[in-house]
Amino acid sequence: MRIVSLCPSNTELCAFLGITDQLVGVDDFSDWPEQIKSLPRLGPDLSIDMNKVAELNPDLILASLSVPGMEKNIEALDRLGLSYTVLNPNSLDDICNDIVTLGELTNKREEATSLSQRFRNVLKEYKDISESIENKPEIYWEWWPKPIFTPGQTNWLTEISELAGAKNCFRDVELASVQTDWNDVVNRKPDHICLAWVGVRKNKVNPAIVKKREGWEKLNDCPIHVLEEWLYCRPSPRLLTGLIKLAAILHPNHYPTYEGEDSSLLT
Protein backbone atom coordinates (compact mmCIF):
# COMPACT_ATOMS: atom_id res chain seq x y z
CA MET A 1 0.00 0.00 0.00
CA ARG A 2 1.19 3.52 -0.85
CA ILE A 3 0.60 5.88 2.10
CA VAL A 4 1.03 9.65 2.33
CA SER A 5 1.16 11.37 5.72
CA LEU A 6 0.35 15.07 5.98
CA CYS A 7 1.57 15.70 9.55
CA PRO A 8 4.20 14.37 11.98
CA SER A 9 1.76 12.64 14.34
CA ASN A 10 0.34 10.56 11.50
CA THR A 11 3.84 9.63 10.36
CA GLU A 12 4.68 8.50 13.89
CA LEU A 13 1.46 6.51 14.11
CA CYS A 14 2.56 4.60 11.00
CA ALA A 15 5.92 3.91 12.65
CA PHE A 16 4.21 2.63 15.79
CA LEU A 17 2.22 0.17 13.69
CA GLY A 18 5.32 -0.91 11.77
CA ILE A 19 4.27 0.29 8.32
CA THR A 20 6.91 2.98 7.74
CA ASP A 21 7.99 1.07 4.62
CA GLN A 22 4.59 1.83 3.06
CA LEU A 23 5.01 5.60 3.34
CA VAL A 24 5.80 7.26 0.00
CA GLY A 25 5.62 10.94 1.02
CA VAL A 26 5.42 13.05 4.17
CA ASP A 27 5.07 16.67 5.25
CA ASP A 28 8.18 18.81 5.82
CA PHE A 29 8.00 18.60 9.61
CA SER A 30 7.91 14.81 9.91
CA ASP A 31 11.33 14.01 11.37
CA TRP A 32 10.96 10.58 12.98
CA PRO A 33 11.75 7.74 12.64
CA GLU A 34 15.05 7.82 10.78
CA GLN A 35 13.71 5.71 7.90
CA ILE A 36 11.40 8.48 6.65
CA LYS A 37 14.07 11.16 6.24
CA SER A 38 14.75 10.26 2.60
CA LEU A 39 11.09 10.34 1.54
CA PRO A 40 9.66 13.02 -0.79
CA ARG A 41 8.64 16.15 1.12
CA LEU A 42 5.24 17.64 0.39
CA GLY A 43 5.48 21.03 2.10
CA PRO A 44 4.71 22.35 5.60
CA ASP A 45 1.79 20.65 7.33
CA LEU A 46 -0.31 23.84 7.02
CA SER A 47 0.26 24.24 3.28
CA ILE A 48 0.77 20.86 1.63
CA ASP A 49 1.45 20.81 -2.12
CA MET A 50 -1.49 18.68 -3.19
CA ASN A 51 -0.22 18.34 -6.74
CA LYS A 52 2.83 16.52 -5.37
CA VAL A 53 0.50 14.35 -3.31
CA ALA A 54 -1.51 13.42 -6.38
CA GLU A 55 1.66 12.62 -8.35
CA LEU A 56 2.60 10.00 -5.74
CA ASN A 57 -0.58 8.09 -6.59
CA PRO A 58 -1.29 7.13 -2.95
CA ASP A 59 -3.73 4.43 -1.87
CA LEU A 60 -4.20 6.12 1.50
CA ILE A 61 -3.80 9.79 2.48
CA LEU A 62 -3.63 10.44 6.22
CA ALA A 63 -4.81 13.99 6.86
CA SER A 64 -5.26 15.84 10.13
CA LEU A 65 -7.08 18.73 11.78
CA SER A 66 -4.91 18.82 14.90
CA VAL A 67 -3.61 22.35 14.18
CA PRO A 68 -5.76 25.36 13.23
CA GLY A 69 -5.32 26.01 9.52
CA MET A 70 -5.14 22.37 8.45
CA GLU A 71 -8.68 22.63 7.15
CA LYS A 72 -7.12 24.24 4.05
CA ASN A 73 -5.51 20.89 3.26
CA ILE A 74 -8.86 19.14 3.47
CA GLU A 75 -10.43 21.71 1.13
CA ALA A 76 -7.58 21.23 -1.36
CA LEU A 77 -7.95 17.44 -1.23
CA ASP A 78 -11.66 17.81 -1.93
CA ARG A 79 -11.03 20.12 -4.88
CA LEU A 80 -8.70 17.57 -6.46
CA GLY A 81 -11.10 14.73 -5.75
CA LEU A 82 -8.55 12.84 -3.66
CA SER A 83 -9.88 10.46 -1.04
CA TYR A 84 -8.41 10.73 2.44
CA THR A 85 -8.82 9.78 6.10
CA VAL A 86 -8.69 12.44 8.82
CA LEU A 87 -7.08 11.47 12.13
CA ASN A 88 -7.66 14.17 14.74
CA PRO A 89 -6.93 12.79 18.23
CA ASN A 90 -7.41 15.10 21.21
CA SER A 91 -6.90 12.55 23.97
CA LEU A 92 -4.87 9.45 24.77
CA ASP A 93 -7.97 7.35 24.23
CA ASP A 94 -8.38 8.88 20.77
CA ILE A 95 -4.81 7.84 19.95
CA CYS A 96 -5.57 4.26 21.02
CA ASN A 97 -8.60 4.29 18.74
CA ASP A 98 -6.58 5.73 15.84
CA ILE A 99 -4.10 2.87 16.11
CA VAL A 100 -6.97 0.46 15.47
CA THR A 101 -8.42 2.65 12.70
CA LEU A 102 -5.08 2.71 10.89
CA GLY A 103 -4.79 -1.05 11.35
CA GLU A 104 -8.17 -1.54 9.70
CA LEU A 105 -7.19 0.71 6.79
CA THR A 106 -3.92 -1.18 6.20
CA ASN A 107 -5.07 -4.77 6.79
CA LYS A 108 -3.24 -4.97 10.13
CA ARG A 109 -6.21 -5.00 12.45
CA GLU A 110 -4.93 -7.81 14.67
CA GLU A 111 -1.53 -6.18 15.21
CA ALA A 112 -3.17 -2.78 15.76
CA THR A 113 -5.60 -4.15 18.33
CA SER A 114 -2.73 -5.72 20.25
CA LEU A 115 -0.69 -2.50 20.16
CA SER A 116 -3.65 -0.43 21.26
CA GLN A 117 -4.22 -2.74 24.21
CA ARG A 118 -0.53 -2.51 25.20
CA PHE A 119 -0.85 1.27 25.09
CA ARG A 120 -3.92 1.13 27.33
CA ASN A 121 -2.18 -1.25 29.74
CA VAL A 122 0.61 1.28 30.32
CA LEU A 123 -1.97 4.02 30.87
CA LYS A 124 -3.76 1.83 33.41
CA GLU A 125 -0.49 1.07 35.21
CA TYR A 126 0.33 4.77 35.50
CA LYS A 127 -3.21 5.67 36.54
CA ASP A 128 -3.02 3.17 39.40
CA ILE A 129 0.30 4.59 40.59
CA SER A 130 -1.00 8.16 40.31
CA GLU A 131 -4.00 7.34 42.48
CA SER A 132 -1.64 6.21 45.25
CA ILE A 133 0.17 9.58 45.34
CA GLU A 134 -1.25 11.98 47.89
CA ASN A 135 0.66 15.20 47.23
CA LYS A 136 0.36 16.04 43.54
CA PRO A 137 2.35 19.04 42.30
CA GLU A 138 0.89 21.70 40.01
CA ILE A 139 2.53 21.91 36.56
CA TYR A 140 2.62 24.92 34.27
CA TRP A 141 3.16 23.76 30.69
CA GLU A 142 4.44 26.33 28.21
CA TRP A 143 3.86 25.65 24.53
CA TRP A 144 4.92 29.10 23.35
CA PRO A 145 6.66 31.95 25.18
CA LYS A 146 5.37 35.12 23.51
CA PRO A 147 2.43 35.34 23.58
CA ILE A 148 2.13 32.63 26.19
CA PHE A 149 0.21 29.51 25.15
CA THR A 150 -0.45 26.62 27.50
CA PRO A 151 -2.64 23.48 27.29
CA GLY A 152 -6.05 23.60 28.96
CA GLN A 153 -8.57 21.09 30.23
CA THR A 154 -9.34 19.31 26.96
CA ASN A 155 -5.74 18.52 26.06
CA TRP A 156 -3.70 15.34 26.31
CA LEU A 157 -1.13 17.10 28.49
CA THR A 158 -3.74 17.47 31.21
CA GLU A 159 -4.20 13.69 31.05
CA ILE A 160 -0.47 13.07 31.02
CA SER A 161 -0.01 15.36 34.03
CA GLU A 162 -2.59 13.38 35.99
CA LEU A 163 -1.13 10.02 34.99
CA ALA A 164 2.30 11.28 36.08
CA GLY A 165 1.00 12.10 39.56
CA ALA A 166 0.53 15.84 39.00
CA LYS A 167 -2.04 18.45 37.93
CA ASN A 168 -2.07 20.88 35.03
CA CYS A 169 -2.52 24.27 36.67
CA PHE A 170 -4.70 25.39 33.73
CA ARG A 171 -7.01 22.37 33.93
CA ASP A 172 -9.92 24.66 34.85
CA VAL A 173 -9.92 26.34 31.42
CA GLU A 174 -12.18 24.38 29.07
CA LEU A 175 -9.97 24.72 26.01
CA ALA A 176 -7.34 22.57 24.35
CA SER A 177 -4.92 25.51 24.06
CA VAL A 178 -5.04 28.65 26.20
CA GLN A 179 -3.53 32.05 25.41
CA THR A 180 -2.74 33.79 28.70
CA ASP A 181 -0.13 36.04 30.33
CA TRP A 182 2.70 35.57 32.78
CA ASN A 183 0.84 37.28 35.61
CA ASP A 184 -1.86 34.62 35.38
CA VAL A 185 0.79 31.91 35.56
CA VAL A 186 2.44 33.46 38.64
CA ASN A 187 -0.91 33.75 40.41
CA ARG A 188 -1.51 30.02 39.94
CA LYS A 189 1.74 29.25 41.81
CA PRO A 190 2.96 26.18 39.88
CA ASP A 191 5.33 23.74 41.59
CA HIS A 192 7.03 22.80 38.31
CA ILE A 193 7.41 24.50 34.93
CA CYS A 194 7.64 22.34 31.80
CA LEU A 195 8.84 24.05 28.64
CA ALA A 196 8.00 22.27 25.39
CA TRP A 197 7.88 24.95 22.72
CA VAL A 198 6.11 23.76 19.58
CA GLY A 199 8.47 23.31 16.65
CA VAL A 200 11.56 24.30 18.68
CA ARG A 201 14.39 21.86 19.28
CA LYS A 202 15.19 21.22 22.93
CA ASN A 203 18.66 22.79 22.70
CA LYS A 204 17.10 26.03 21.44
CA VAL A 205 14.80 26.47 24.45
CA ASN A 206 16.30 28.89 26.95
CA PRO A 207 14.88 28.72 30.49
CA ALA A 208 16.64 31.99 31.32
CA ILE A 209 13.86 33.74 29.38
CA VAL A 210 11.37 32.59 32.01
CA LYS A 211 13.57 33.70 34.92
CA LYS A 212 13.76 37.23 33.49
CA ARG A 213 9.98 37.69 33.56
CA GLU A 214 8.49 40.08 36.07
CA GLY A 215 7.30 38.22 39.15
CA TRP A 216 9.59 35.21 38.72
CA GLU A 217 10.86 35.73 42.28
CA LYS A 218 7.36 34.97 43.59
CA LEU A 219 7.70 31.37 42.37
CA ASN A 220 10.53 30.58 44.79
CA ASP A 221 12.91 29.20 42.17
CA CYS A 222 10.31 26.79 40.81
CA PRO A 223 12.17 24.01 38.92
CA ILE A 224 12.10 24.40 35.14
CA HIS A 225 12.19 21.29 32.96
CA VAL A 226 13.10 21.71 29.29
CA LEU A 227 11.38 18.83 27.51
CA GLU A 228 11.32 17.46 23.97
CA GLU A 229 8.41 18.98 22.11
CA TRP A 230 8.08 15.83 19.98
CA LEU A 231 7.28 13.80 23.11
CA TYR A 232 4.62 16.20 24.38
CA CYS A 233 3.23 18.43 21.62
CA ARG A 234 2.27 15.89 18.94
CA PRO A 235 -0.82 13.67 19.37
CA SER A 236 1.01 10.45 18.53
CA PRO A 237 1.89 7.27 20.44
CA ARG A 238 5.21 8.90 21.40
CA LEU A 239 3.25 10.71 24.11
CA LEU A 240 3.58 7.42 26.00
CA THR A 241 7.34 7.93 26.14
CA GLY A 242 6.74 11.50 27.28
CA LEU A 243 4.52 10.24 30.10
CA ILE A 244 7.14 7.75 31.26
CA LYS A 245 9.82 10.47 31.30
CA LEU A 246 7.68 13.05 33.12
CA ALA A 247 6.53 10.60 35.79
CA ALA A 248 10.13 9.57 36.50
CA ILE A 249 11.14 13.24 36.85
CA LEU A 250 8.33 14.17 39.22
CA HIS A 251 8.10 11.01 41.32
CA PRO A 252 11.24 8.89 40.91
CA ASN A 253 10.35 6.80 43.96
CA HIS A 254 6.90 5.85 42.63
CA TYR A 255 7.31 5.27 38.89
CA PRO A 256 9.66 3.17 36.74
CA THR A 257 12.97 4.72 35.72
CA TYR A 258 13.02 6.51 32.38
CA GLU A 259 15.62 4.85 30.15
CA GLY A 260 15.35 6.97 27.03
CA GLU A 261 13.21 6.76 23.92
CA ASP A 262 12.47 3.06 24.04
CA SER A 263 12.28 1.53 20.57
CA SER A 264 10.41 -1.42 22.04
CA LEU A 265 7.32 0.78 22.14
CA LEU A 266 7.24 0.40 18.37
CA THR A 267 7.36 -3.38 18.16
UniProtKB/TrEMBL annotation:
Keywords: Signal
Domain of life: Bacteria
Alphabetical list of InterPro entries matching this protein: ABC_Transporter_SBP, ABC_transptr_periplasmic_BD, Vit_B12_bind_prot
SUPFAM superfamilies, per database record: Helical backbone' metal receptor
Alphabetical list of Pfam families matching this protein: Peripla_BP_2
Record domain Fe/B12 periplasmic-binding: where: 2-254
Gene Ontology biological process: cellular response to iron ion
Family: Belongs to the bacterial solute-binding protein 8 family.
Protein name from the UniProt record: Cobalamin-binding protein
Phylogenetic placement of the source organism: Bacteria, Bacillati, Bacillota, Bacilli, Bacillales
